[in-house]
Amino acid sequence: MISIEGLTVEFGGRPLFDNISFVVNKKDRIALVGKNGAGKSTMLKIFAGLQQPTQGNVSYPKELTIGYLPQHMQLNDGNTVLEEASLAFDHIQQLEIELEEVNEQLATRTDYESKEYHNLIDRSSYLNEQFLMSGGGNFLAEVEKTLIGLGFKRTDFERPTNEFSGGWRMRIELTKLLLRRPDVLLLDEPTNHLDIESIQWLENFLSTHANAVILVSHDRAFLDAVTTRTIEISLGKIHDYKVHYTKYVELRKERREQQIRAYENQQKQIQETEDFIERFRYKATKAVQVQSRIKQLDKIDRLEVDEEDNSSLRLKFPPAPRSGSYPVIADGLEKSYGDHLIFKDATFTINRGDKVAFVGKNGEGKSTLVKCIMGETDFKGKLELGHNVKIGYFAQNQASLLDESRTVFETIDYVATGDIRTRIRDILGAFMFGGEASDKKVKVLSGGERSRLAMIRLLLEPVNLLILDEPTNHLDMRSKDVLKDAIKEFDGTVIVVSHDREFLDGLVDKVYEFGNQQVKEHLYGIYEFLQKKKMDTLQELEAVSAAKVEASAAKAVEATTTTTTPTPSENKLSYEERKELNRLIKRLERQISDIEQKIERMELEKASLEETLATPEGSSDPALFEKHGKMTKDIENEMSTWELITMELEEMKTRA
């Protein structure tokens, strides 16, 4: 679909890409990988048409559609969540508006025999057909399903978008992008603002419903679940592996070993040639041989070895001061903001040396509980910190507390103690502050760079309770490995709020699940927790959550009109819940029937077009081929919509 030929991009005379070529095929799932600054985001911008290469071509069919989700974006205010997400079907809404206007004119005009009136009838018929063929009757169901999959509640749909944080607004943009079903999806760090459940939903969606996908991510588990091809950008070149990320790491290691051997052999050959030239440079009898060796040396294509992988660097924390046996004890803990209950009856004990994870959907109270532990917010119930507990806390605002007048090196040198001071530059290199970057002033660093620096600074302080809130968002693979190994060896207590399953795997031995205004303790690791919860796709969990919200709304309406409320028996739906569920089932069945009829009509039209294309006149008409391609794509989109709604209907029926 997309062909890259001789692509070269230069910045300040330095080549970022040097004459690279490759092809993106239909249904490819590609991971773009490489160290920070290698050009991954630049490559996505070139694909999206937002940046032009210095040389080379990017070619693709005229009708190809591309959707691009950057790391940072400008978001619009003024709409509700549902209205903003529905802009993905803006063309359908425009059809609907025009259709209403035409029908209104038909209802008010009385010149039934006029040419203008008959033109309006024709226009109404055309618009109505286009509206039905575009899925006009069911696009809201798909919008709602996608929003719920990405973590929104039905009660959020009518809230203004400006009430949400940047991360949640990014989800709205992602929703619009997924709903448009472009031929190629370009995703730059899509998981940075998603929780574990939403990431798993996105994995399933991309694996089963997306067309071609090209993504940049530092989430190893996400890459393995979604991608089947890995393109590494290194030293201006690309290395194309037809495998998922984990297998690529193995193959890359083998390739690098081969590179090193070839490089060493070449260096030996160059040294021997230079020694010969130097030894016989001034001997007339050897002049011919010397000139021959000089020409031979000039012709050598010098090999380069990929950047050194420092993931084996070991960062060891200072010994943790001994704390009491129970650093955190909660009993009947409750937190509300006004009338909005976050969680209640939270009762748990974190033992000295525990490494635990706080997981759950965003907005369920993970960071709020951290604030309670930190003493930054009030609460009800009992929460005690153990004897001699010294907390090291990493959150996004920690980066804003750094001294801007210091350099990167000075910031770390100021808090480092003991032998660690001799290895500051190695540590900075592992966290992407190698070379000249260590001499930058803090005031010129980006937000992501400041976050990484704050993380390093925190991890060098002598504490015995580390609380890390989303510590991996701005770290690449190497830095995450360094951080993970350091935490595993830390002899204190650790609380990690994270959505990165691979990072948590093998790190934590206890999981606290936040959801439904509760905090539940699970005495096992992250993947065992996910398996126990049967959250491989989380569709069942999402459907249950949605049903509970709808049931609560139905109960609230009933409470205003009657004094008696049916009491549901244990593990059974109440009368109102069943009534609401049956209503939803009937609506989905109607939508499925409409789509099936629409697909049947489209298939007939396509078959008729194919008969025309088989004639000499039809086969020479480019417009007919273009129409056939569009029709094929429209049918595929309708089939995808049919699959989504059918899956939702099956889930509903299992609960009915």
Could you characterize the architecture of this molecule?
By secondary structure, the chain is α/β, with parallel strands linked by helices. Among the domains are: 88 residues, no CATH class; 205 residues, Rossmann fold (3-Layer(aba) Sandwich), CATH 3.40.50; 113 residues. It has 21 helices and 18 strands. Strand 17 and strand 18 form a beta hairpin.
Q: Helices, strands, pairings?
A:
Elements: E1 2-11, E2 14-24, E3 29-33, H1 40-47, E4 55-59, E5 66-69, H2 81-85, H3 90-108, H4 115-133, H5 139-149, H6 166-180, E6 184-188, H7 196-208, E7 212-216, H8 220-226, E8 229-234, E9 237-241, H9 245-280, H10 287-299, E10 328-337, E11 340-350, E12 355-360, H11 366-374, E13 380-385, E14 391-394, H12 408-415, H13 424-430, H14 447-459, E15 465-469, H15 477-489, E16 493-497, H16 501-504, E17 510-515, E18 518-522, H17 526-532, H18 539-559, H19 575-613, H20 616-619, H21 622-655
Parallel strand pairs: 3-7, 3-8, 5-6, 6-7, 12-16, 12-17, 14-15, 15-16
Antiparallel strand pairs: 1-2, 1-4, 8-9, 10-11, 10-13, 17-18
Helix pairs in contact: 3-4, 5-6, 9-10, 18-19, 19-21
Write down the overall geometry. flat
Structural class estimated from helices and strands: alpha/beta
Helix content: 40-55%
Rg, alpha carbons: 30 Å
Number of helices: 21
| Spatial order of the strands forming the largest sheet | 5-6-7-3-8-9
Number of strands: 18
Q: Per CATH, what is the topology of the domain at 328-532?
A: Rossmann fold
End-to-end Cα distance, whole Å, is 44 Å
Instruction: Label the CATH architecture of the domain at 328-532.
Output: 3-Layer(aba) Sandwich
| Unreliable stretches | 535-572
At the first level of CATH, the class of the domain at 328-532 is Alpha Beta
Going by CATH, the homologous superfamily of the domain at 328-532 would be P-loop containing nucleotide triphosphate hydrolases
Major β-sheet, in short?
A: 6 strands, mixed
Average pLDDT, all residues: 80
Residues in β-strands, percent: 15-25%
